[in-house]
Amino acid sequence: MKRLSLLGWTICFLFIWTSFVPAKIKPKDLPENYRRWIEEEVFYIITPKEKDVFLQLNTANERDLFIKAFWKHRDPTAGTDKNEFRDEHYRRLNYVNRRYKYAGKPGWKTDRGKAYIILGEPNDIRIFQSSDAYYPAELWAYQGVKMNGLPSAFNLLFYQRGRIGDYIIYIPGMMGPQSLLANYMEDPTDVMAAYYELEQIQPLLAQATISLIPGESVIHHPSMASLALVQNLDGAVIRSIEDRYAQKFIDYKDIVEVEYSANYMDSDAELQIIKDPSGIPFVHFSLEPKNISMGSYQDSIYTTLEFNGILTDNQGQTIYQFERTVPLNFTKEQFENMRQRPFRFTNKFPVIPGEFHFSYVVKNKVSKEFTSSEANIAIASDPKTFTMTSLLLGFNATKITTPKQLNKPFVIQNLQFYSQAKKSFVAKDNLYVFFQVWSLPENLRKNGSIRYTIFREDVEKLTITYLVSKYQNPIDFLEIFPLENFVPGYYEIRVALLDESGKEILSQQEIFEISPASYILRPWILAQSQDRPDSPKTFHILGKQLFNKKDYEGAYGLLKNAYSAAPENFEYSISFAQLNFQLKMYKDTLEILNPFADQIKNNYDLTFLLGQSHQALSEFDRAVRYYNEAVDTFGVNVNLLNALGKCYFSLGEKEEALVAFEKSLEIDPNQEKIKEIVQSLKK
Length: 683
What we know:
This protein is an alpha+beta fold. It is 33% helix and 26% strand. The protein has 21 helices and 26 strands. Strands 1, 8, 9, 10, 12 and 13 form a 6-stranded antiparallel beta sheet that branches.
């Protein structure tokens, strides 16, 4: 995994919860129907990644869902009941098993069967019957083939060596014309002598032994292009398969609902850490699904997207979690205007210092599809840490016109920055380059410089150096480069911070593409605004992150600010109350919660925390009342039953305590201390 120096964040497609690779089973140990599927039915069309994932699955339901996903990602007409690829594949499989089986060998295992399964029916088959001079052979002609690694027109040659056994495929360069001659008596290494002898008997067959590609001019040796053709046949189908969905299937099979797990949408993602003018780091991120399926009703085109994000630390502890549900509704005219353009969802949230993993899932409620992205984020705990963020490359930036727009994702200074994860541009575009330098030393502010260099294939195409003092803001750096003089291709831009002597102090680089196209369809953007950095919501998010990291002192001021600004807000109140409880400020906890006491049937955390606070103050009868309310409303769990048992015990009601503790042991028998209490009560 490659780390970038912004305090080390990278987009990586490694799921945080899978800290180990599930054990794989061998195909022979699968139930017969699944063994046959992977070892016979899809043997030539399954990618190594798909096979690897399938062998990590444990249940019939998981395997059935994976098989559904396998065919879905090959369906040329997604959204219809018919899957033409799957139907054609099984037609070919059934055909070859009838037509080409030989001496107990099933047809799919033969060379002709394999070619037929991969390529389909030939446009023409020339049959060369056995003669005294050459062995039986078949020449299959294909035209209009659209597969990676194969020419659009070519032949395949099969022959029966020694007139015995099944037909095998002829491989130019490894075999020669002499392989087809029945009574060849000359030097077996003299390819051209054999070719001329076969040409006298059967010219078309002789030509095929030298080249399988019509019109190719080859003299004195077999065609290397024909050798490559046969060698590329094996992977012809799987080379065009985007199999990232397979890894996503196993990563998320226990997290997303069953109806979603087989329907992974591929997507591109982008993430940037940007410090707000207030000094708070915000995670700005985007997700760009390859397609968004919509439903329709009368004149309305609609769907509902559900966004789920989770920030975890290195121990897998949840630090921050959020969920958004966004309905999308368009008229048919609006939808037609935007349907050809990609879709980009953007959002941002504040984050505390530390090393985290951010995982993001988007579910389409109409099509039951999902997509996801993951990133590692690291922010130094010392705010004085001197560092340079990664480069954010954009195709445009427009001036903000209203204060509300300042809180949107990817807003830089007073500009709305527009970018795409693929970093593709055309020659008429400008390249916008943004980065931040955190805690820039005073000497570099006065005498340092920034050098921008654009390379193509390691050849320097442009270098510009500016003094740091040119920039009004000592943290934000934005430059614009016209691309009109750059030819299409892949480029790298490298940005370096230099001291007064020209010595490089920090640097970052990024790859981008200039497309030969005349224009690129830019996305329509769904952006969700975040509250101001000084808002109660921002204080609450940061305070909860610190609370979940068990930094209670750091969380106190933030959660108190959020609560003080809006004490009627239940979310702010319950968070501040939980913090007060952890700090053993039990009376303050009750004071915060009492205005919400009439809502105990609506929230377990509220009810349980009220009980805990009264228990901590030795008000056991009141604690019992809240705990029993929680049992009646929300059911039992170990923590609730143990707390209830301890309160009953403190009240001298030992029979009730025994009932609660024994019920707790039924749920979790491995509680040694509770076992000791139960034994003592029984005595």
